[in-house]
TrEMBL record:
Pfam families: BPD_transp_1 (PF00528)
NCBIfam families per the UniProt record, alphabetical: PhnE (TIGR01097)
Main location: membrane
Subcellular location as annotated: Cell membrane
Gene this protein is translated from: phnE
CDD domains xref list: TM_PBP2
Gene3D superfamilies: MetI-like
Source organism of the structure: Afipia massiliensis
SUPFAM superfamilies according to UniProt: MetI-like
Protein name in the entry: Phosphonate ABC transporter, permease protein PhnE
Similarity section: Belongs to the binding-protein-dependent transport system permease family.
């Protein structure tokens, strides 16, 4: 197959090259202007937040030094030279870690159920009334805007120390976060099955059941597993305000300067999160297949 290329006069080629160079120059100018504005805003924000690079440079040694201290036993030797001494309280810590996992599981389950019930009213293409959609969206925004640790502190004051406060805090925050993700998933569905079901005279609930749920359930399950992983870390922090779990033991170790205990508890939390990440990834693969995960 022969391909012929048109031949243009040098004058026309020069005009095209000039137009191309001008377009490239304008694009580069816009990029440079945007970069200058970004840097300027970053500087202004840093000044407003009282960011002090000098202090960071001067104090970074304290940060590194603390991690060096938590890797030492009371005898002065490194923690890995005596694992039995390092993890002396592993039985108690495992029980508290299990409490953290159960706290996260129950809170995530309650939050997922609440988000599942609200998200269809918040989706633009599914909500039966604009006013209802507005109210539901504001409720979910409130749930996810207030930090979960603030909710935990409020519930600790109301219900006392213990896992109940952590469960409620995680549940409320999960309703807001998962509700947002669920509703966005619902807004991106293929509308043809929904229109087909509606054309038969089906009710709003039946339309959701037969046309929407088959499309969104894989995404809902994937988001829920991811939220559970996040909530495990959230639950570990909530112990700082007395909401139960391993976090309470960690904050005691930090306040009493039990350096080796701090590193042991942190290591147990990190390993647990790693395991959960691997298991949830495997479970998503089993449920939806590798193709959908990618």
């Amino acid at each position: 197959m022969t391909v012929s290329l048109s031949s243009y006069p040098p004058q026309q080629i020069a005009v095209l090259e000039a137009a191309y160079d001008a377009a490239v120059a304008r694009k580069r100018l816009r990029f440079a202007a945007g970069l200058v504005v970004f840097v300027a805003l970053l500087i202004v924000a840093s000044l407003g937040a009282e960011v002090a690079p000098k202090t960071f440079v001067e104090k970074i040694g304290n940060f590194v030094g603390y991690f060096d201290r938590i890797l030492n036993l009371d005898t002065g030797s490194r923690v890995w030279t005596d694992p039995a001494e390092w993890f002396w309280g592993w039985q108690k810590w495992l029980k508290l870690l299990a409490e953290t996992l159960l706290l996260s599981y129950v809170g995530t389950t309650i939050g997922a159920v609440g988000a599942f019930g609200l998200n269809f009213f918040a989706a633009t293409n599914l909500s039966p009334h604009p006013g209802l959609r507005f109210v539901v969206r504001r409720v979910m925004e409130f749930c996810r805007t207030v930090p979960s640790i603030v909710f935990a502190l409020i519930f600790v004051i109301a219900f006392g120390l213990g896992p109940m406060a952590g469960i409620l805090a995680i549940a409320i925050h999960s309703i807001g976060a998962l509700g947002k993700l669920y509703s966005e998933q619902a807004e991106n569905i293929d509308m043809k099955p929904l229109e087909g079901v509606r054309s038969t005279g089906a009710s709003w609930m039946s339309s959701i059941r037969f046309a929407v749920l088959p499309q969104v359930m894989p995404g809902f399950a994937s988001y829920t597993l991811l939220r559970f992983e996040i909530n495990v870390r959230e639950a570990s922090v909530m112990g700082f305000v007395g909401a139960g779990g391993i976090g309470q033991e960690l904050v005691v170790a930090v306040r009493k300067f039990f350096y080796s205990d701090v590193s042991a508890i942190l290591l147990m939390i990190i390993v647990t999160v790693f395991i959960i990440d691997i298991l949830t990834g495997w479970l998503r693969g089993r449920l939806f297949g590798v193709e959908q995960r990618v």
